[in-house]
Each structure stands twice: as structure tokens, then as C-alpha cells.
Amino acid sequence: MIRFDPETNMDEQSDGPAPKWTKGTQILITFITMFLVCSPILSVECTAISVWPKPRAFSWPTQQATLLSPSFTIESPHHQYLSTSVNRYLNLILSEHFHPLSNQHVNMTNGPTLQTLVVLVNDLAAPLSHGVNESYSLSIPTSGDKASLIAETVWGAMRGLETFSQLVWGKPSWVAVGVEVQDWPIFSYRGIMLDTSRNYYKVEDILRTIGAMSANKLNVFHWHITDSHSFPLLLPLEPDLAAKGAYGSDMQYSPADVRRIVEFGLEHGVRVLPELDMPGHTGSWAEAYPEIVSCANMFWWPEGSEWADRLASEPGTGHLNPLNPKTYQVLKNVIRDVVTLFPDQFYHAGADEIIPGCWKADPTIQAFLSSGGTLSQLLETFVNSTLPYILSLNRTAVYWEDVLLDPIIKVDKSLLPPEHTILQTWNNGPNNTKKIVSSGYRAIVSSSDFYYLDCGHGDFLGNDSQYDQPPGSNQGNGGSWCGPFKTWQTIYNYDITYGLTEEEATLVLGGEVALWSEQADPTVLDARIWPRASAVAESMWSGNRDKNGMKRYAEATHRLNEWRSRMVSRGIGAEPIQPLWCIRNPGMCDAFHPFV
């Protein structure tokens, strides 16, 4: 009998260049690796106990387990957020009783029960901010009744508590022993973006998402709060924006709601990054201030006009007018309120998809253009009038890449100091990432080719003739501009520093999957995000390659099946990635021949 498990020995993510294999060789080796990991045909057993995301260094040579004491406790220093986290994990560990999907091949011992997990933190004062140390070490000995978790900060301790919780299973509860873990993330920024303007999500939906993010060791909830469709954020200094721009009084986020979400994030080690997109995507502002919004409530693509003359890229028009002084009076109040409500050091200022036709439809802007002004000068006026105020409030500005890379309307680089500006890329895959970092800017990668979770569901336009084609017609991407659907393996395998020099790669802060909500709402939220966001979580935490530099998505399939099942048991409606039969018959559902 052979027993093989990729996590039996220390396995550190390689920082060196990956071996150059042919496509066929890589698929063959990947398949053989998976087959050896879990194959009844070769009499190779597969342990059902693993951790997601996979730790950077994990050792479990004995594959032993002992019973967890019914009176198990966690000892930790007092800290406002760590103590809450410890209580949450203690309750989870004692009550979860997760039952793995596949057979357990673990040596159950009759040794002493594990009584205590002792948590030690070196720096209790470190705030939850970008770049905070999230490393931890976990030791669960084969003898004795205590395990130890040592972290540099409380946020690293939270990551270690999650790892420990995944090493407990069954009823009565068993815990893996003889385990040594050394763990830390590759990327400091690991996020999910949720659009709550196009469709509204209750606070409980957002909290459930943040809780699942923490379990996956994701650490930034990018909250795209407002857009042209609705303005659900109730701001104390500008209450009419939500009172008139939200879908209804029951579809608003009050300051108390925001405090609850931010506090919940802190209790789970997840930052909340607010975005109020501007100057585009602001049609909803016109309900309160029609005088500051160009082309509001107009049909997005007038009949008989060319695509280049559209007023918006989808239904829902409106851009703030950079020439109206009232615009900045309102904006100063908005920005001040957002900074007060959200303590994070990053402020997302939007600036994507400035559509020429919208500004050109405004009489005051027409006069400006007729006098020799340009659309890019309009955007520069807007940025010059808002960015200094954002920076004066001790925030780092995050913009979508368009502000610098749009082919028609963009600002001069001199207006965006790299030391105070981060650019989030969503177009042209690694090419735009290269353009951003080679210009000296830090980058957050959200490439729509890989990381957009809404893609592949068609389009939401009514009366759409592209869906009335003769049988046999080429359906292309099914009407989805960013189709096809991004599978978990597509997401897992994307290398966000592809094509960059070593120096350029240091400017990539991390990655973020995005769920735009034209065709999403709370009824599909969990399944649209999970477990695909788990794929980006592991690739951002410990990478998508093994210690030999080989892509490990085949080996990850088994672990993700188990992790998805555990998430479901925790109340997250994650969609399945395979039939249960595949899980019960390891290796039988894997591809051997390359699909090229």
C-alpha cells in the first residue's frame, strides 16, 4: 500500500522561475500528480484533511489525529477584535462536526485529548491596514494536551485560527496532531468587489460575504456602493442623495449599517474599501442634484446613432459636470462623510468609463469644447479639484485604470503622483498591468478576462436581436461582453505578475475578483462568488504552483471540493464544482488529453 499526500512534507511556494514545460508535458505531469494523490486504481490513499488556502509550509508526517476535548478552550491575550474572533472560532470548532466527503485515511490515536490552543501575539497594537503582517505559525504536537499558535499581529492570529478550525472534523471531534505550519501570504491585497447599486443587498448578505472572505483568508471587501442606477448610501451631510437616489427607503445603508459592516470586517480581519464612482456612473445623483449631472435620465444609446456616440456603455446615464462649481460643493461633503464612515487608508475614487457622448450632450460643456477645450481637460479639472482633498484627509486614492489608460479621455500622469495613487486594472489582461507598473504605479489586478464573476450570463438588454439568430449561427460569447464564464480553474491559474520584471512585480499589490450586479442579487450572491473566489484566495495567498513550479490546479480540485462542502456546512451557498461521484472516485473525472 502506498500512501502519498502533497502536504505530508514541507511545501514552500517557489519564488524562482517556473520550469519551461511543453503544454502536453505539463498536463501529463499534472494528471499523474493528481492520480498519485488520490487513486484507488493505484492503491494510493488520499487524506481528506487539508487546509484552504493551502499554507506556504505545512508538515504532517505522521498523519495522526487525536480526539478534541469536549472542554477544549482557546487561551489568548485580550484584544477588542481578537477576543471576538477567538470566541467565534471556539464555538465553531466545538459545534461544526464537519464530515469530509471522501474517506479519511488518518491514523486515529488513543493519546490524550487536545485541551487547549494557546495563542501568542507579538504586536497587539498593529492596525488592520494594507501591508500588515499576517504571518503565523501553528504547532499541534502528537503528545501533550496543548497546541500553540504564534502570530506577529492579531490579524495573523485570525488566519491561524481559521487554519486550526479546518484541521478539526467529525463527531466526536478529531484534530490532526503532529502538525507544523508556517504561513504567510504572497500578496497583501486579496479582495472581492461587490456592486450594491444596480441591485440592492441587505446588510446580512454583506456580512455573510465578509465572513466567508475571512474563512478564505481574503482581506479586502471593495464595496462599490453607488452607480448611475441607485445611490443607497445615506450620508449625513448630503442625505438627499440617498433619500431621492436609492431604490427605496428600505434599500439604503444608514451610518449605523456602515459602522456595523466595518466593525464586522475588523472582527474578521477584512478591510472595507468604499467606492463612490465618479465622475461617470453618477446618474443617480441627479435625483437630488439634476444641475450637476450631465445627460441624466437620457436613453443610453439613441436610435440611429453610432456606438461611438452613445451616452453610456449600458442603460443608466449620467456624468458629474466638472465645470459646475456646485459639483464640488456636493463632492466635498460626500468625500468628507465617506472618510468619516470608513476608516480604511484607501479611498476608491472610481473614474472609469467616461463616455464622450454624455459630456458632449451638456450645453455648458459644449461651449467649453467649442472654445478649444478638450474632454481630457474636463477630467483633469475634475481630478485636480478632488484628489488634493482626498489626500488632505490622509487617504491613498485608488482609481480604475481608465483615468490614465483610456484611449480618449485621460489625465496627464503628472496629476497622479504614484506615491499617493493606486490603479486598478480591468482591461486587456496582463498588458494593462504592465502599462501601470512600468509607469511606476502600484496595481490591483481585476482583469475582466479572468476575475469578473458576472461574465458568461448573457446580457440584460431587452429586445436584443443578437438572441434571435437562425439555428447554427455562431453564438460567440452568448451576448456577454466579457464572456465566457470564468471557471474556478481559469481564475486559479491566472498569474497576475505574468510578463513583469522582478522589480515591476513588486508594484502589484494583489488581485480582486468582481461581481457586478446587473444580473445578480441576494438570491444568487453566494453561488456567483463561491467557490470561485476561493480560487483567487489560494492563488493570492500561497500561489497556484507547487514547490517544483508546476501548476497545481489538479491537486487543488480535491481540496476545493472538500472546502466547498465545508463552506456549505457553514451556511455559504457555494456552488458545486463536480458531481459527488467524482469526489467518491478520486482521479476518475480528470482529463488526460490536452484540450487545445
TrEMBL record:
<dbReference type="InterPro" id="IPR029018">
    <property type="entry name" value="Hex-like_dom2"/>
</dbReference>
<keyword id="KW-0378">Hydrolase</keyword>
<protein>
    <recommendedName>
        <fullName>Beta-hexosaminidase</fullName>
        <ecNumber>3.2.1.52</ecNumber>
    </recommendedName>
</protein>
<feature type="domain" description="Beta-hexosaminidase eukaryotic type N-terminal">
    <location>
        <begin position="51"/>
        <end position="167"/>
    </location>
</feature>
<feature type="domain" description="Glycoside hydrolase family 20 catalytic">
    <location>
        <begin position="187"/>
        <end position="543"/>
    </location>
</feature>
<dbReference type="InterPro" id="IPR029019">
    <property type="entry name" value="HEX_eukaryotic_N"/>
</dbReference>
<comment type="similarity">
    <text>Belongs to the glycosyl hydrolase 20 family.</text>
</comment>
<keyword id="KW-0325">Glycoprotein</keyword>
<dbReference type="GO" id="GO:0030203">
    <property type="term" value="P:glycosaminoglycan metabolic process"/>
</dbReference>
<dbReference type="GO" id="GO:0016020">
    <property type="term" value="C:membrane"/>
</dbReference>
<dbReference type="Pfam" id="PF14845">
    <property type="entry name" value="Glycohydro_20b2"/>
</dbReference>
<dbReference type="InterPro" id="IPR015883">
    <property type="entry name" value="Glyco_hydro_20_cat"/>
</dbReference>
<dbReference type="GO" id="GO:0004563">
    <property type="term" value="F:beta-N-acetylhexosaminidase activity"/>
</dbReference>
<dbReference type="Pfam" id="PF00728">
    <property type="entry name" value="Glyco_hydro_20"/>
</dbReference>
<keyword id="KW-0732">Signal</keyword>
<dbReference type="GO" id="GO:0005975">
    <property type="term" value="P:carbohydrate metabolic process"/>
</dbReference>
<dbReference type="InterPro" id="IPR025705">
    <property type="entry name" value="Beta_hexosaminidase_sua/sub"/>
</dbReference>
<keyword id="KW-0326">Glycosidase</keyword>
<feature type="active site" description="Proton donor">
    <location>
        <position position="353"/>
    </location>
</feature>
<dbReference type="InterPro" id="IPR017853">
    <property type="entry name" value="GH"/>
</dbReference>
